[in-house]
Amino acid sequence: MGHMEIWINPACSKCRSAISLLDAEGADYTVRRYLEDVPSEDEIRAVLDRLGLEPWDITRTQEAAAKELGLKEWARDESARDQWVKALAQHPKLIQRPIITADDGTAVVGRSEETVRDALSR
User: Fold this and answer.
1) Which 8-state DSSP code applies to residue 95?
2) Which SUPFAM superfamilies has this protein been placed in (predicted)?
3) I need a surface site. Which of 18, 75, 89, 93 has the fewest CB within 10 A?
């Protein structure tokens, strides 16, 4: 098992569960507190490529910032992709969590024990 990176918000219970599981499995990982160490637009694009997802797939649309931006009304297509990525970079709270980058260059959103184990098995 190689080195992993996990993006967390320490206040998030699902993030803490994911960390506990990584520790229990003896995983080698780096924690990124992405609200403090905010990812750039390029980093967000790279993670989306690894996840195989679009920016709207990892956006927390219930957050206050999402409502202020009117995200629910935004187009979800190629033409709007940059607008979504920019919003995630400017308002990192909107990023779904935890995101775990596995050793093989893929990534998962580790919101269940199952997905965290999936990352561990790669």
Assistant:
1) B
2) Thioredoxin-like (SSF52833)
3) 75
Q: Which is the catalytic residue, given 1, 12, 21, 38? A: 12
28 alpha-carbon distance from chain centroid: 18
Contacts of 67 (CB under 8 A, 6+ apart): none
Q: How many residues does the chain have?
A: 122
Domains in the chain, number: 1
Find the domain containing 89 and state its range: 3-120
Residue 15 annotated in active site = no
Residues 6 or more apart whose CB falls under 8 angstroms from that of 75 comprise none
pLDDT of 71-121, one tens digit each?
A: 999 999 999 999 999 999 999 999 999 999 988 889 999 999 999 999 999
Rounded to a whole number of angstroms, the CA Rg of the chain reads 14
Residue 10, CB-side half-sphere exposure with 13 Å CA sphere: 5
- CATH number of the domain at 64, please: 3.40.30.10
